[in-house]
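Severity: low
Component: inverse-folding endpoint
Summary: output formatting inconsistent between runs
Steps to reproduce: submit the following structure tokens with default settings.
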């Protein structure tokens, strides 16, 4: 169904409903866009916090590595691991080594203890908790790293060691001691340096991270053990749900559900410890708490605007369509030739102005019709010459015929479409009327073409562009002269008698050219049903009959327009000019108008 076929009030109602739907969609889209933007910004904030924390931890681990590197490269410590003289080892070198380890501990608060072991199992340590270093559990734990071929050249951070006696958890940085002082074991591994990392200090660093109140931050080793966390309830353990999340997506944050709660999980690798990483778990609800007030305000504002649009739409629809419907009803009465009836002016807006203009037009039309009839009577009663009287009578018949058809057209359009089309038709009619009442009998061809164009505008609205209509006149002819109103009645006949009965697809073509003799020829062709052979012959006979007989018969019949035009042309220019007609059933009709070049 075409929207243009709907009544005006239904079209306006559709526009308001469409506006409400579009606004509602935009409202929902804006809310969810803002909601997602808030989450993304919060996730970016969490990512920055994790980045800062990872930089601090990387700095701590790097300091431990540097301190350990200084220790294992120290000449005295290397001598300690290869010395055979126990006295020299204990009192000469050992004292220095212990002082060096004490200095390292005091210099770096993240170092909780240092142990130097040689290949013979001898050791020296500096720690606040030395019991763990002498336990069999520690020896078994460290031996796996001493025998690991991957740790021959470089150090590595260990997994967690849980003290069976105290329940405390430790992890270490173990680096090999490679002899580089030129002894018999040059470039060989002579021992190990074990650094016990202060987990309490790491825990303080994590706990001081500024996340949301219930967020959790973990430092995980390569075995997914929690080294430290700001949540003591999950110390040493991690949700299996987190481990199942695709790690490639964790860098930018992944929304998931843990313990029936929506959270955003993010991960950052630690550069100074292979396989180690920081994982944060931030509840989504805490990220969007500030959204609740905005959401409620947005919903209330959206509902208020929608209700306002509906109320305003109702009043607008009622105030616009009511006078239009009244205007259409009045136009129906005018179409039925209710003499003396005038359109009621129901408002002061554009519809009211249109009603006022229609009333003025009707007044002028009735005045014109009255003047035409009075003029016609006076012409017949006057003692003017016969040809001048006949010419004036024929001229006076055209305008009432055209006014009648046009008035019916206005009524039909007003019923179907409303004010816009009525305004356009009124404008076109005004141009035609102004042209038709010009005092000049001869006008420029360009003026006659403009009259046809105005009429075709009316027809295109009346029949909803059902027909193709075109005008093709040689530009050299536009400044030439022609009798007034000789083409429009023929075009009108082509529409009403040729194309009107067609459903769609009809064509109307108006063309003009100069023939071989230099005369002006117009052709009006329509693709309508055509004229039967008998009727065509009758029409041609009427055009060819004696002049007095044509005048007498030109006042009756459907072909009044063509007969009058033929009579007018021959009165002005003689028998050699006039109107010809050709037609065939199923192939349309062609009317040819010939006048001299002027």
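Observed output (run 2 of 3):
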């Amino acid at each position: 169904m075409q929207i243009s076929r709907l009544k005006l009030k239904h079209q306006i109602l559709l526009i308001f409903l469409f506006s409400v739907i579009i606004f509602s969609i935009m409202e929902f889209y804006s809310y969810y866009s803002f909601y997602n933007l808030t989450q993304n910004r919060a996730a970016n904030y969490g990512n920055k916090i994790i980045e800062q924390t990872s930089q601090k931890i990387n700095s701590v681990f790097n300091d431990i590595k540097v301190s350990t590197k200084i220790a294992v490269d120290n000449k005295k410590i290397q001598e300690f691991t290869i010395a055979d003289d126990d006295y020299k080892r204990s009192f000469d070198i050992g004292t220095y080594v212990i002082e060096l380890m004490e200095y390292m501990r005091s210099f770096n608060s993240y170092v909780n203890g240092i142990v130097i072991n040689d290949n013979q199992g001898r050791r020296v340590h500096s720690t606040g908790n030395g019991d763990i270093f002498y336990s069999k559990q520690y020896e078994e734990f460290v031996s796996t790293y001493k025998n690991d071929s991957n740790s021959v050249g470089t150090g590595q951070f260990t997994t967690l060691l849980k003290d069976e006696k105290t329940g405390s958890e430790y992890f270490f940085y173990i680096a090999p001691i490679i002899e580089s002082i030129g002894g018999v074991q040059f470039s060989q591994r002579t021992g190990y340096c074990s650094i016990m990392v202060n987990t309490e200090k790491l825990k303080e660093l994590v706990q001081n991270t500024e996340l949301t109140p219930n967020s959790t931050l973990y430092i995980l080793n390569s075995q997914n053990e929690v080294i430290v966390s700001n949540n003591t309830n999950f110390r040493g353990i991690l949700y299996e749900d987190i481990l199942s999340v695709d790690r490639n997506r964790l860098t930018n944050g992944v929304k998931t559900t843990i313990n029936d709660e929506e959270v955003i999980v993010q991960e950052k690798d630690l550069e100074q410890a292979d396989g180690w990483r920081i994982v944060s778990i931030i509840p989504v609800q805490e990220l969007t708490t500030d959204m609740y007030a905005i959401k409620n305000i947005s919903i209330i504002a959206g509902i208020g605007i929608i209700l306002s649009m509906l109320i305003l739409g109702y009043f607008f629809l009622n105030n616009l369509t009511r006078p239009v419907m009244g205007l259409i009803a009045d136009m129906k009465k005018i179409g039925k030739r209710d003499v003396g009836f005038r359109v009621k002016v129901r408002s002061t807006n554009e519809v009211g102005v249109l009603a006022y203009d229609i009333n003025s037009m009707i007044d002028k039309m009735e005045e014109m019709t009255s003047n035409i009839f009075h003029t016609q009577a006076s012409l017949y009663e006057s003692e003017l010459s016969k040809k001048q009287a006949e010419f004036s009578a024929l001229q006076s018949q055209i305008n009432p015929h055209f006014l009648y058809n046009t008035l019916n057209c206005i009524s039909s359009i007003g019923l179907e479409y409303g004010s816009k089309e009525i305004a356009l038709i009124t404008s076109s009619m005004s141009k035609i009327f102004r042209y038709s009442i010009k005092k000049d009998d001869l006008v420029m061809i360009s003026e006659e073409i403009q009259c046809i164009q105005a009429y075709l505008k009316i027809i295109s609205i009346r029949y909803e562009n059902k027909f193709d209509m075109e005008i093709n006149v040689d530009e050299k002819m536009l400044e030439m002269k022609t009798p007034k109103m000789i083409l429009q009645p023929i075009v009108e006949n082509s529409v009403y008698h040729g194309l009107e009965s067609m459903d769609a697809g009809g064509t109307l073509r108006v063309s003009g050219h100069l023939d071989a003799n230099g005369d002006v020829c117009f052709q009006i062709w329509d693709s309508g049903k055509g004229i039967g052979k008998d009727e065509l012959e009758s029409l041609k006979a009427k055009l060819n009959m004696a002049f007095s007989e044509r005048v007498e018969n030109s006042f009756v019949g459907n072909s009044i327009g063509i007969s009058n035009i033929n009579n007018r042309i021959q009165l002005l220019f003689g028998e050699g000019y006039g109107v010809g007609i050709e037609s065939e059933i199923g192939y349309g009709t062609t009317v040819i108008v010939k006048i001299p070049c002027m």
